[in-house]
Amino acid sequence: xxxxxxxxxxxxxxxxxxxxxxxxxxxxxxxxxxxxxxxxxxxxxxxxxxxxxxxxxxxxxxxxxxxxxxxxxxxxxxxxxxxxxxxxxxxxxxxxxxxxxxxxxxxxxxxxxxxxxxxxxxxxxxxxxxxxx
Length: 133
Prior knowledge:
This protein is α+β, with helices and mostly antiparallel strands. It has one domain. Helices cover 47% and strands 21% of the residues. Strands 4-3-5 form a 3-stranded antiparallel sheet, with helices on one face. The protein has a two-stranded antiparallel sheet with strand order 1-2. It is elongated.
């Protein structure tokens, strides 16, 4: 009995770790997609080399700002603070944990039944997003 119990303990910890990392990845992608969707599609940024060619010209191109390297870097610097807006929800059938927003982007009411949000949940999710990835 002790051997069977000992063999189950690592899988429970591994599943919690997997749930946390999958939830962190989903939360990260959701936040990035939301922020990208809020950018004006006509907004551009100059990219390219700022070196001067022998003929005196420069190789500068304008690219869409949304999804540009500069924009994504800016978003990744701010995404850690967004993890405070997430809570943990446990599926009653499978006991798998998922992470959901507890504060909506647009101010609409949200169903928070069964959602746990406290310092432990947000700090573990923030650590998984900001330090683990």
